[in-house]
Amino acid sequence: MTDVTQRSARRTAGAQLDHTDPTAHLETVGSMSTEASTVSNDAPVRTADRPGPVLDIVVPVHNEQVDLEPSVRRLHAHLSDRFPYPFRITIADNASTDATPLIAGRLAAELPNVALLRLEQKGRGRALHTAWSASDAEVLAYCDVDLSTDLAALLPLVAPLISGHSDLAIGTRLGRGSRVVRGTKRELISRAYNLILRGTLAAGFSDAQCGFKAIRADVARRLLPMVQDTGWFFDTELLVLAERGGLRIHEVPVDWVDDPDSRVDIVSTAIADLKGIARLGRALAAGSLPLHELRGQVGRGALSRPDTEVAGVPRGLPGQLIRFAVVGVLSTLAYLLLYVLLRGASGAFGANLVALVVTAVANTAANRRLTFGVRGRQRAVADQFQGLIVFGLGLALTSGALALLGAWWPGASQAVELAVLVVANLLATVLRFVAFRSWIFRGPRAATTPVDSQEASS
């Protein structure tokens, strides 16, 4: 289990924790949980006359004896000088085997508003889950021990949560206004991972992995029990579930400098993340997560526009895939029919171009209305223009396939041509669905955020 050692002093003149009783903080949490659970997540946080801190910022560590002390002292100085509310820094040591626990204990004894949480099992997600669950603060946050993120972004991170405007907040290295210094390899890996999240889980947030996040405590109490991962995928799972539950995620562009001494195993972390995506995707598709209840408890509800109608359109990913497949089959049949009719007069490339243009326009219009539930004429021209960009990629695939066939098999029959085009169109279809879902029809107007099957069927 966990051995919790508290060494915190209140910034205000309120009640002091008993430094000799390691369970005092947990008792305080238990006494406050009922009161906090009745507070609406869109109400402002009470910042005055509180018995505990407004912000509890967790620093998860594992064998960080070199960076821990200078980083915690720097964080403590920043909060003491520039943060206008009572705070606590919780060092969450997860199974360190070096001098990290001794250093953390010394810091907790020396610095006011610093506490130590010791876990005997490794895992950043486990450390955050435990620390946040045991905290009596109204706003919970964490930052990486290397402090790669400029601390000037801390107040903008938590301010929307304190005001009640947002439920979670994340630092983003990929948003407009962010300033980032890091190697090309890490940059490509980060962007690829977030693209995968957009394509597979329809994630709307820009940066899942930045080690700089915050959440309201009343929201965390309902959301944390649903998060299964105890490692690096914890952040992603938390954000995806929050987004599917109708919670508002605020993004703060940050200044971020890569730590060249980072010991994160990129390969094993990437494999674990992909496994997490697969597990979470299966759970969402099966409707096994209580997202409907979460949305009813703390979700902010959906916004609608007067020019759109989404009632009666299933919003889940399985329903979208089925309708997209039906539209795709009909489009492919229409494309092949047009190609055969025009082949003799226009040649292979001319027939391919005309058939693709006609079916691409019809395909975009059908998917706009039937698959993604967009009604009305607003943005119809823009949607078609973006659809034609995707069509251009499909044209490149099919034309390239015909060119390769002509080079490798000059005397190929029309049946072989059709077979090659079918394969090329299948690839173009996959590309089209990803583009439709994550780019063209992404957003509330298109109802592209999949929900659990319970909501989709209600």
Stretches where pLDDT is under 50 for at least 5 consecutive residues are 1-39, 304-314, 444-458
Query: What is the CATH third-level topology name of the largest domain?
Result: Spore Coat Polysaccharide Biosynthesis Protein SpsA, Chain A
- What is the overall silhouette? elongated
Placed side by side, the strands forming the largest sheet appear as 1-4-3-2-5-8-6-9
Strand % is 5-15%
Provide the succession of SSEs.
EHEHEHEHEHEEHEHHEEHHHHHH
**Integer average pLDDT:** 80
N/C terminus separation: 41 Å
Q: From the coordinates shown, what is the CATH architecture of the largest domain?
A: Alpha-Beta Complex
Counting helices, strands and paired strands, the structural category is alpha/beta
Number of strands: 10
Radius of gyration: 26 Å
Helix content: 40-55%
